[in-house]
Amino acid sequence: MDQLNLFDMPTFSTEKKIRLIELFAGMGTQAQALERLGVDFEHHFVCEFDKYAMQVYNAIHGTNFATSDVTQIHATDLNITEKDKYTYILTYSFPCQSLSLAGKQEGMAKGSGTRSGLLWEVERLINECKELPDVLLMENVPQVHSEKNINDFESWLSFLRSKGYYNFYQDINAKTMGVPQNRDRCFCVSILSDDFIDYEFPKEIKLPCVMKDYLEPTVDEKYYINSPKAK
């Protein structure tokens, strides 16, 4: 398969239709990725606490999901059935506020009550599942595996391994994937399998443009921050 290009996406086919389960869904950018790749999938279940993000999600995807709290949902809500007909992908890009360098860095320890500690609600849900999702996808700040958080992150990966998942994680910067933005993020792919499997993350894409290619040559002064606010 040729290397992906941000502006010339190939289409993909799957043996079984994907049922997408999105926890901490936001506006549904992970669903948008599947749409842009032409993958045959359906919005199976969405969990998003913020009502405005949920409104944006529904507007973008033509859905009608209600807001929900990850602490209040259960495996029955995920409705993982007919796995002979469907492949289930669960995304769980949990809040980064307690991990990010821009935040208070309170961590994600189980029982800590931090926003990033909501990760362990995903553990609860997986433990409740009679049928497990086939693939788990996570995106978060690189601090998810920093020296301060590495023990919690490794505990999480160990839990997933105990459930039958092979885990692969890597920090990827947007600027190495064809996007003119210096945005470093950790991605983790967990694949449910009885046999050993391997997984390779995409290779780097040469940056086809720079930020100035996106900027207008002249911009009205009303869009600039005034001096007092800038200071």
Weakly predicted, low-confidence segments = none
Structural class: alpha/beta
Compute the number of helices: 6
Give the integer mean of the pLDDT values.
Answer: 92
Question: What Rg is obtained from the alpha carbons, in whole angstroms?
Answer: 19 Å
CATH topology (fold) name: Rossmann fold
* Helical fraction: 10-25%
Q: Any idea what the shape is?
A: globular
Q: By CATH's scheme, which homologous superfamily applies?
A: Vaccinia Virus protein VP39
CATH class: Alpha Beta
CATH architecture designation: 3-Layer(aba) Sandwich
DSSP summary, beta strand count: 6
Q: Could you describe the largest sheet, including whether it forms a barrel?
A: 6 strands, mixed
- Tally of structural domains: 1
Q: Gap between N and C termini, in Å? A: 50 Å
**Residue share in β-strands:** 15-25%
Notes on the structure:
With about 230 residues, this protein is α/β, with parallel strands linked by helices. The protein has one domain (about 15-230): Vaccinia Virus protein VP39 (Rossmann fold), CATH 3.40.50. It has helices at about 30-35, 50-60, 75-80, 120-130, 150-160, 225-230, and strands spanning about 15-25, 40-45, 85-90, 135-140, 165-175, 185-190. α4 links the parallel β3 (about 85-90) and β4. The N and C termini lie far apart (about 50 Å).
